[in-house]
Amino acid sequence: MKNILLALLVTTGLFAANHVVDQKGKTFIPHAISVAVGDTITFKNSDPFAHNAYTDDEANEFDIGMQSPKIDVKVTVKAAGTFNVECAIHPNMLLEVTAK
Amino acid sequence: MKYLLFLVLFSSFLYSSDSKYEMGKKIYVQTCLFCHGVNGKADTDMKFIVKPRDLSKTILNEEQSYQVIKHGAHYWGASADIMPSFKSVYNEKELASVSYYVSKTFNPDVEKKIQKLYAQSDDIPNDKISKMLKRGKKIYKRNCSWCHGLDAKGDGEATRNPEMSIFPYDLSKTLLSDKQMFLYIRDGGKAWGTDKTDMPGWSRKYDDFTIKSVVKYIRKNFRKKDDIK
Q: Who has the most CB within 10 Å: A92, B11, B146, B155?
C-alpha cells in the first residue's frame, strides 16, 4: 500500500509541468498561460533592472519579492481558476493565468 | 496727467519685463543650452546617464524652477546630481531672470494645465481622509517603496541592484504641490519631461482616489507643506 502511495506521489510529481514566464521590456512573456493545479511557474528576469510578481488571488496568493536580473523564482499553482499576476514596480505588466 | 503717469508706469513695467527676459535668455544661452538645448527639449548630442529635463513638458512653475536652478535638483530630492546649483554662479536677480525666461518661453501655460487636469480628476470629499491615509499607506508600501524606500528617501530595495540605473527621488525633499504630485504619479515622469520611464504612470492600475490617497500619505508622513522652504 505504501509503495502504491509513493508511486502515485512520484507519478503526480512527474506529470506536474513547469511553465517559464520571462520578464523582458517590462512585459510578461507570454502574457497569458494555461496551467494545471500542481504545475509550477518559473519567473525569469531578462531586464537589467528589478522586477516583482504577485497575485492577490486568494486561492493562489503569492508575492516573490524583489527579483534581481538573471534570477529565477519558482511558484506552485495551488488551485483552479483564472487570476492575474502583476509586477508591483511596473504597473503595465500583466500576466493572466488559467489553472484547471 | 493721470494718463501720463499710467504711460510712464506701463512703459517701465514693459521695460523691466523685457530686460528680465533678455537677461534670462542670455544666461540660458551661455549656461543652460548645452544640456537643455535651444528649444528646451534637451535634444542635444550630449550623452547623459540621466537626460536633462525637457523644459517644454516640466511640471514646475516659475518659482519652483527658480528654486531648482538656485539650489540644484539634488537639494529637492533628485538622487542624480546632474542639475547643479547655480547660486554661487549667479546672483538672485540673474537666477530669477533665467527661471522667468524658461517659464515664459518653453512652458508658459503649465500652471493652467495643472489646474485644468486636476479639475478633471475625481473630487474626494474631506471626510474620506482617514480612509485615504489607510489606502495610501497600503499602496505606498506595495508599489512605491520598492524604489522610493519605506521612508521615502529614494533608497528602496530596487536601487540596491548593481545593474540598476534608476534614480528615484527622495520624496522627503520634494517641492511639488499635492496637485503636481498627483499628476506626476498618475501620468508618470515621461509625460512631464523626463526621458526615462522609471517612474511609470499608475492610472492604468489605480483610480484617482487611490492616487490621491498616496499623495495624502506622502504629505502626512514624509513631506509636510511647512517643510518646503
A: B146
